[in-house]
Design brief:
Layout (H helix, E strand, L loop, with lengths): L2 E11 L3 E4 H5 L6 H8 L3 E4 L6 H16 L8 E5 L10 H9 L5 E5 L5 H14 L5 E8 L10 H4 L5 E11 L7 E9 L7 E3 L12 E3 L1 H23 L8 E4 L4 H10 L11 H4 L6 H11 L8 E8 L3 E8 L1
Parallel strand pairs: 4-5, 4-6, 11-12
Antiparallel strand pairs: 1-7, 2-3, 6-7, 8-13, 9-10, 12-13
The structure holds acetyl coenzyme *A.
């Protein structure tokens, strides 16, 4: 029997505290105008001191489970895409499993930084398609505020905290009605590690470290690589990029998103953009944007949705699904 991985529900969570560009201008030599012009970001959410990545993940997961109409007893796989885990080990997914009261199945983290959600969706799709698992919780959750150097204006203005989640179900091909993940494409070029990395880690410094980025070099790589990934996925699915209903990009920079829109002849009104109010929430940004699109009635059952991301590694990729 063959199965399709269908998104049965989604959920989002943003911490209460909001940090505006003007707040940041009091910390570093920057301005609201510079940040808005260069990135499209106005404000971002920051986790409370006692909130861990798993706490954000659990809020988003509960919302997704409610949306899908499922309980803890229905979940047999939890994958958390994060670069900011609670602990070095165990996986944040294990902590999330316990907090949700899920007693069966497997749980693990996946680390591809900002590309984490696309990598995780592609992974989960394979677990479900082969029949090994029945219903997955796929969560992108980050507390990037914990690894920012708050004296470095070139990085601290870009990121925010948050979590988004999908419940993804294995649905028999013949009843799936074409819904589900159709194609995905993942890439990594490890020779470009130095463009975007964290300068600490367990086996190097013994510390968590801080984000370091040659932003303009990442920027130059972004539009070409992201567009190629989207074209590849569209080709695999036998459609043209212009056939999609909605474009749900990783929210790193509004200028990168608009560059991709122009290169692939998409319409600006096909983009689900959350960057102005959330900044770059790394692995959480795609499910957060997808949930926004569902919540405000733009993404409807049966719509063709393209997801894409690029992040540290350099990793990048795209996925096409029917909602
Ligand atoms: N406020 C004011 N000026 C600033 C700031 C700031 N916050 N940050 C940098 N500048 C200055 C620089 O010092 C530089 O000044 P100089 O010309 O005097 O040297 C000038 O602005 C231009 O700097 P650039 O880095 O060339 O600016 P750019 O237009 O490239 O914008 C940005 C920077 C927003 C970071 C952009 O390069 C970008 O978005 N890059 C891609 C980010 C991305 O996609 N990352 C991947 C995902 S993240 C992940 O995986 C963790």
């Amino acid at each position: 029997m063959s199965f399709r991985a269908v998104v049965a529900g989604c959920g989002a969570y943003l911490p209460e505290r909001i940090l505006t560009n003007n707040d940041l201008a009091k910390l570093v030599d920057t301005s609201d105008e510079w940040i808005r012009d260069r990135t499209g970001i106005r404000e971002r959410h920051i986790a409370a001191e006692d909130q861990r990545t798993s706490d954000l993940a659990v809020e988003a997961a509960r919302a997704a489970m409610k949306d899908a109409g499922v309980t803890a007893a229905d979940i047999d796989l939890i994958v958390v895409a994060t670069a900011t885990p609670d602990l070095t080990f165990p996986a944040t997914a294990a902590i999330v499993q316990s907090k949700l009261g899920v007693k069966q199945g497997a749980a693990f983290d996946l680390q591809a930084v900002c590309s984490g959600f696309v990598y995780a969706l592609s992974t989960v799709e394979k677990f479900l398609a082969c029949g090994q698992h029945k219903r997955a919780l796929l969560i992108g959750a980050e507390t990037f505020s914990r690894i920012l150097d708050w004296t470095d204006r070139s990085t601290c203005v870009l990121f925010g905290d948050g979590a988004g989640a999908f419940v993804v179900e294995a649905v028999e091909e013949k009843v799936a009605d074409e819904r589900g993940v159709i194609a995905s494409y993942l890439r990594c070029d490890g020779d470009l590690v130095d463009l975007l990395y964290v300068d600490g880690g367990v086996s190097s410094t013994g510390t968590a470290g801080h984000v370091r980025m040659q932003g303009n070099k990442v920027f130059r790589e972004a539009v070409t690589r992201i567009s190629e990934a989207m074209e590849t996925v569209a080709r695999q699915a036998g459609v043209a990029p212009t056939d999609i209903d909605w474009f749900v990009p990783h929210q790193a920079n509004e200028r990168i998103i608009q560059g991709v829109v122009r290169k692939l002849d998409l319409r600006p009104d096909q983009v689900i953009s959350t960057i102005s109010g959330q900044g770059n929430t790394s692995a959480a940004s795609i499910p957060l944007a997808y949930c926004q699109g569902v919540a405000d009635g733009r993404i409807k059952k049966g719509d063709l949705v393209m997801l894409e991301a690029m992040g540290g590694g350099i990793t990048w990729g795209a996925a096409l699904l029917r909602a």
